[in-house]
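Entry type: protein chain
Record version: 2
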Amino acid sequence: MSLILGIDTSTSSGSVALLKNGLLVGSQLYSIEKSHSNLLHVMIEQMMGNAGCKMNELSAVAVAEGPGSYTGLRIGVSASKGLCLALDIPLIAVNTLEAMAYQMYRRSTEDVTYCPMLDARRMEVYSALFDKDFNTIKPTAPVILEDYAYEDILNSQKVLFFGDGSDKSKEVITHQNACFIDHIVPSAEEVALLAFKKYKTESFENVISFEPFYLKEFRTASSFK
């Protein structure tokens, strides 16, 4: 039996999820500014109790590694590493944008390209591209929003933009194949589901040395075209 705890604190929203043998058995979400340090452990304990599970029954902890909020990522990763060390279980890292894209992929039946976006600063976002079969087209990268951003992919297919970075993208990306979906936030459910695949192949992180994926170097990156 596998029991995986998923944690996401990449943005101002935070969530936890519990996966038993590949099936979701519980999840909780909060959307309160600057609440990760106060609510994260409380929510984990509540969810585990509601699911009738004990902490020492966990097989692994999965965490959204980033990109995202520096403070949020640090809190989530620190909590995950602490649990793994205390319980002597593996740590699994999942890219935040990949988890966001998987959230849409699980629910969509359209032939589209998925473009999760997280707000960075000014007219910049963290972004990635995934095709209709959830294959990576463009890996996670910083993007400066300009009128030609994503032009090549939009000229050939419909693209779904979502995440808090997509709000300001509407002003710039006006191509007829661009579609925007509001109110999509990262979720620990998808973190746990994607982590289950890594759990089966033992794709674990070094608990001691693992650091969040902050993606700091983004002033050197160019737009997707």
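Comment: The radius of gyration is 17 Å.
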